[in-house]
Amino acid sequence: MAVVDVYDLERKKISEAELRDEVFDVQINKHVLHQVVVSQALTHRSGTAAAKGRSKVKASGSKLWRQKGTGRARAGSAASPTRRGGGVAFGPVPREYANKVPKKVKKAALRMALTDKLKSDQLFVVNSFELPEIKTKQFAKVMKNFDVHRALIVTSDKRDNLEKSSRNVPGVKVMRYEGLNVYDLLRYDYLFLEQPTIGKIEEALVT
Known about the structure:
alpha/beta; Ribosomal Protein L4, Chain: A; 6-stranded mixed β-sheet; about 35% helix
C-alpha cells in the first residue's frame, strides 16, 4: 500500500493515510482512458440539429405547371430541394450521440486516472475542506498554500461554504465523491481528496 501525507488547509502535515494498490497503483492503458473520456463527452452533445425535408415543408401539393408545352423544365412540387423555399436534401435529423461503455471499463479507467494523479505527485489528501465562512479570499489563500491553480476538489459531504467561496475562482471544481469521473480527473491538474472519501472511493472501485 502507498502511504500519503494528510494535510490541513494550511498545508501542515497532521497524519498519514494508506491507499490501496488495487485502486491507486494499477497499470495505465491510454486507450481505455480515451474510450471513457470520449463516451462522457458524447453524452454532452444535444443531438437536436434538424432541418425540414421536402415532406415537412408547407407547400402546395399541386403540380406547378403542366408537364409539356411550356418550354420549361418539368416540375412537380414546390417543396423540391432544388427550389427556393423547398426542403433540405439529406439534412440533419435529431439523433443520440451517446456511446455507452461497460461499468467495469469505467471503473478501470477511474482507477487508472487516480493512479496517474498519485504517481505524478498531483494528489493532495486533506483532513477536511470545511471553510468557516463564505469568502473567496480565504479559499484563494488555501489554493496558494498548496501552490495550485487548476484543481478538482472531492468532498465526502456537501460543503456550501466551500462551493460558494470557490465559485468565482477560475479553474476549480468542487464535487462530492459520488460524482467522481475520468473526464474531470484528467481535465484538472491537481486532485484534492478529503480523507473520509478515500475509503468510500476504494470501496466503490474494488467491488
